[in-house]
ABC transporter ATP-binding protein
Amino acid sequence: MPGAPILEVRDLRVEYATGGGAVRAVDGVDLDVHQGEFVGVVGESGCGKSTMLFAIARLLSPPAGITGGSVVFHGQNLVTMAEKELNVLRWRDLSVVMQSAMNALNPVASIGAQLRDAMEAHGKFTAAQVRERSAEVMSLVGIDPVHLKSYPHQLSGGMRQRAMIAMALLFTPDLVIMDEPTSALDVVAQRSLMLQIKELQRELGFAVVFVTHDMSLVSHFSDQLLVMYGGQVVEVGPTRTVFDTPAHPYSRGLLDAFPSIRGPRVELTGIPGSPPDLGAPPSGCRFQPRCPVAEDDCRVIAPALYQVGAAQSRCLLNDPRRAGAPAAEPDVEVGP
């Protein structure tokens, strides 16, 4: 996409301190996000998706902590920022939509009171301005402003998620981070919410980083796709490229486990085995114990991200130095 990225993540590393030693949940992740771009992040549970998002937003709490790398947002490194400086950026320029709105919203405060608290924490506004802006963002996400007087338990799951998105858009931020916001919704509510998010994105121009387990959501709505496994990015590229010609065996495994409503009927196949123990990851490629095309080198050589057309893949089979591999230079940076 044209222009410089608004978010540049480089070599991000996050570790959890445990009694058995440090567990690296995010290991050397690179990511670029441009203005107005929709970036999807997929992978199995425990692969580091949510931890990466919370690290980008600087919302990690002990025993988790960032141990290396940088998160540059509009030219400012969030990793080295003091909490007071971060509080100025959050909600105004960067906001977060949590996975479970029922848990993220205050159950004993009305939606209007929670919107008011967010506004008053980031500026001086009259009561009339608060009411006007609160009604405006509620209407933006398709909720009648009359529900400003409602409490979270009085709203449906979809309405609670929309209220969270309304709160995230109070100050029209440049970047909205979403951690599985549709996971608790039925498929009809999921699609309705995603169409609403996409429409708001087109209208307001903000960028989205969206974590999900649902491959159908990212296939329809994301521009760029990150596939994570074992705390690392194993494939990244334009969404259609990754879906049409996946370059990493793990990406192919995820797609083979996902049913299609078009084309001939094919048997779904899962990925055998379990994700790696990040406290003691396997040597070489982290996917090799489960990989159907693993070779001897895969057990000892840790692959970099190699350029494969418009995408990048962390697989030795794509190493241009190997016979038969695509003629492209290896590239350890992740970019669109």
The radius of gyration is 21 Å. Residues 327-336 have pLDDT under 50 and may be disordered. Residues 187-204 form the longest helix (18 residues).
